[in-house]
Structure prediction request, 151 residues.
Amino acid sequence: MSRYNPKQTTLQAAIYGDNGTAVGEILGRNTAAKDVSRDSLVTACRFGKLEAVEAIIQNDTDAVLLKELGPSLLHDACLGGHVDTVRLLLRCGVDPEAKNKRQWYPCHTAAYHGEVTCLEALVGHGVDCNAIDPQGQTPCHLASRKTTQNP
Prediction:
């Protein structure tokens, strides 16, 4: 349950509360809310608010948000270990081979942060777990390096 924050919009409160029904209703009746749905989708993915993610995607009728943000959303979901969100994004067609600013694939992000279930979901979707980043590292390299740095 989220704490009350007087600076939160109704949409933000619904997202943090993972109230997909409320998110859908707000976006469905308020055209101004659609302008903030971009930030809302990022927030919902980053914090693993699955119902909110589903509601925002359903209201994104032309799939503009997923086309624009899909790769970063997948990285955010992997970073937080939100495997259900990862699976949803993959089902919606988000490219699991898209790189982030570090030129990492989502599997690198998941491995580096020790999010095994997210990595398994990506591999189950056909992602190459031997993908190499610009520094020549595979997800396995990143996972082992992270483990040795933080015993």
Observations:
- The chain has a mean pLDDT of 79.
